[in-house]
């Protein structure tokens, strides 16, 4: 049987090159070869969006995407900072919960999960605004420019976990101070490594609210070619290979084009079957779309049918658990995979 294709929003179907990288030689995280690997990945992450290494730093963590989000929020809202968290999905709500758990002065700009961001709900006095770029709950690509325009001085802390490597990010125009990302979504690595990219000046004003996720500790060690704690060496190998593959394939712009082409086929094919997208094309990311389950077909039946055909799709979260399904086009997928997927869906609706 053909290998399973993952259409969930990470982990992704690996390319052969990334899978093979997991088998590179055993390596101690205190050896110079590891320091070299870590610096190469940090530089490659900045290079994805052409960020100047004199001004920006990439900080590598061992942990899933949420570890990077938590490190960013706990470290980069200063002690006297006032944070607004924009929530129009599960990941925005998670950021609010993280900030509140650390006792950060937090206002929630709450929205229904299908809503676009209403900038009138943002606190005009916030010093930092935490926002999700691609709200994976619904597939919505949030309008960061509108958030930045509506708040004169606030700095953005971005959850770019499901967009880094595939969507445009306007670091200067949107006053972005930092973002959190992960290896195993649009970058096509394996789960286990996540990262924060931050302005070096902002790291100088960081707060220390946690020992393990303190970005200042990581930055000092990583700038010195070291690491405060054991890193997940093999997932670094995979990320190293995945970043080389991204650069060699034409960078985030080409990846976005490819995702768009595949997603256009998915959306078109499903609409032709009478299956409606949750959000219009123009409001959706290139990475993932959510669809309303057709009448009379429950999620488990669709999921199991497609799994037998070689595809793993993803359920809705929370209030959407019974009403939608999600399809992401990250990872080693091609047009033929999408055609086969559509044939398999056609045979059950
Ligand atoms: C996947 C994801 C995360 C992190 O989830 P983990 O399971 O911790 O990797 C955070 N934010 C968004 C928007 C995501 O899609």
Please identify the structural class as seen in this structure.
alpha/beta
- The string of secondary-structure elements, in order, is EHHEHEHEEEEHEEEHHHHEHEEEH
Task: Give the C-alpha Rg.
Answer: 20 Å
Number of helices: 11
**Uncertain residue segments:** none
Number of domains: 2
Describe the strand arrangement of the main beta sheet, using strand numbers: 2-10-9-8-5-3-4
Q: Which kinds of small molecule does this entry bind, naming each only once?
A: pyridoxal-5'-phosphate
Distance between the termini: 24 Å
CATH superfamily of the largest domain: Type I PLP-dependent aspartate aminotransferase-like (Major domain)
CA-based shape: globular
The fraction of residues in strands falls at: 15-25%
Overall CATH architecture of the largest domain? 3-Layer(aba) Sandwich
CATH class of the largest domain: Alpha Beta
Mean pLDDT: 97
Largest pleated sheet: 7 strands, mixed
Can you give the helix content as a percent range?
25-40%
Q: How is the CATH topology of the largest domain named?
A: Aspartate Aminotransferase, domain 2
